[in-house]
Amino acid sequence: MHGIEGIEVAGGTPARPIAGRLSPPIALRALLTPRLIPLGLAIVTFLVFLPALWNGFVEWDDQINLYENPSYRGLTWTHIRWMFSTVLMGHWIPLTWLTFGLDYVIWDMNPLGYHLTNLVIFALNAPAFYFVALRLLRKATGFADGTLRLSALVAALFFAIHPLRAESVGWATERRDVLSGLFFLLTVLMYLKACDAGGRRRGWLLAGSIGMYILALVSKASVMVLPFALVVLDIYPLRRLGGSVQGWIGARARAVWLEKIPFLVLGVAGGVVTYYAQNANMFITPLERYPVSARPAMVFFSLWFYLSKTAVPQALSPLYELPQHVSLLGVQFLVPAIVVTAITVAVIALRHRWPAGLAVWAYYAICLGPVIGIVHSGHQLTNDRYSYLAGMGFSLLVGAAAGAVVRASAARLLRPFLARAVAGLGVAWFLSFAYLSAHQVQIWRDTESLWRYALEADPECAICHGNLGVKLTHRGEIELARMEFDRVIALRPDNVKVHQHIGYTYAVRGDRARAIEHFKVYLKRYPNDVDALNNVGAALLNDKRAREALEPLQYAIKVKPGHVLSHVNLGYAYADLGDLPRAKSLFREAIALKFDTPEAWFGLVRINYDSGDVRGARTAWGILGQIDARLAGRFGPAFVQTW
């Protein structure tokens, strides 16, 4: 077959195309010119996700990683050293941190710039995937040039504008997804080029592929699975492995296995570092909570979830909460187990007639390996962003299907009206994906819209209620916040963390006894949480129980010597107990830690005045007025006139 321009007949003479049926329109021919396709893909991808530029930072890791984190803000040696040594939030991602540092240098803390960088990087993923698809589909299908380009274009579009990509693009923290994805694709592309090359050029291309893989790993370590993905490609469609015993262990096969060693070493190193980073942050889900018997249920559910959401991207959410109990016998998990088992059996049975099916399914399972639940971390059962690498295989199948339709139409195996109907459905499908993606990326606009949308998708999400409650607390809507926290307790009585927030709402309302009760419930599970220790100390102080406040506040400073508010509150406790020198020392320590701490200056004014140091009180009051005039005004004119 030589493409859609004509039909090959016996004797090798192509039949003349029938006007209006087999010849592609001029506009389509122009679209499929090799130079325009990559640029067009990048532009379309950029435009579909353009609403992301109006997103802000959200209180879902962004506060820890970005807008409350001064450590990455710059590209000095101090910043770079931190980037290469930190495992903040369970990730070692120095290259991603470097891009954030560059963002800060250019944009300061303007979220538009951070999202623009995310969007540009992601837009580059589309042409990179197109070039990978072009080579893989050529090996797998034998399509002629025009059909091949159309097939690769469809595959790249399906991947790039799918609504499952919205989380990776619209959430500033997930820079690591789009950046590692770009280098993952470049790694595969250079590897495919090396497979077609020989001599020194082959060696250079393999070295370049390894270099790209290193950059992918230091962007996000989920790409650790790449060596196994390359083995799948070597089996099909490259056919460098398999077919016979010699195809697995012969001289040619041994060369294929040997070239995987650098990739495997790097992948294992990435896995070790990732486990260390997750474990150091205590993110690994213990077997006591979800035992080995629960893990197969997680695996089956994940394999079904991403497949179903790829086909029908409905009810997407920023958080699919891990149920309190996971069992393979539950309907939620049993049905996916049956479906996944049936698919696996089917693709294995059809491996000779349809090798692409087994290759894509194997690649899909491999890419989900680190996040599928075998080793679990976090609050989620699944996440949209986990489909980033895994979804590429399905995109290739969609592209191949589009090419098959074109080829069948050209060969008159498909009636013209059916071909047009299929093409129309395809266009409608892609337009709907574009619309859904543009809408989905906007749920990351701000924290409140994020969690209200999540609750629309799943009203029973306890963590979503809790996160919305925290946002309402920050806005001063204490009663509404407490209602959200009470809902968390109703849904998940085992959620101890919410007691910290409930305690705060009671403290703000002046109900100190209940506040202290909830803080203590929380501290039984998390005794080293410095903020909670400080909060219970402050509540005890306000309840005129200064001596009881000493223990939690002293322990807070022992756990974290640099915690400013614990110094301040401990100073107030000693002041209430009459130990003015100790109180004064603690206020000065707090000021040394953070000069513009108004509560410390306020305490220093009071201690100096009560100690008879009027001059010191006047000086401290003047500085307090520059830092917080409202707080300084609490002393009142009569108090100041006594000086």
List keywords for this structure.
643 residues; mainly alpha; Serine Threonine Protein Phosphatase 5, Tetratricopeptide repeat; 2 domains; 32 helices; 2 strands; disordered N terminus
Notes on the structure:
By secondary structure, this protein is mainly α. It has helices spanning 26-31, 36-48, 62-67, 77-85, 94-107, 111-141, 145-160, 166-170, 175-196, 199-217, 226-235, 246-249, 251-258, 261-280, 295-311, 331-349, 355-368, 387-410, 416-440, 447-457, 462-474, 478-491, 498-509, 512-525, 530-542, 546-559, 564-576, 580-593, 598-610, 614-627, 629-632, 636-641; strands at 320-321, 380-382. Helix 9 runs antiparallel to helix 10 (199-217) and helix 25 runs parallel beside helix 27 (564-576). It is elongated and about 100 Å long. It folds into two domains: 26-443, no CATH class; 449-641, Serine Threonine Protein Phosphatase 5, Tetratricopeptide repeat. The longest helix is centred in the N-terminal third of the chain and has 31 residues, at 111-141. Strands 1-2 form a two-stranded antiparallel ribbon. Residues 1-24 have low confidence and may be disordered.
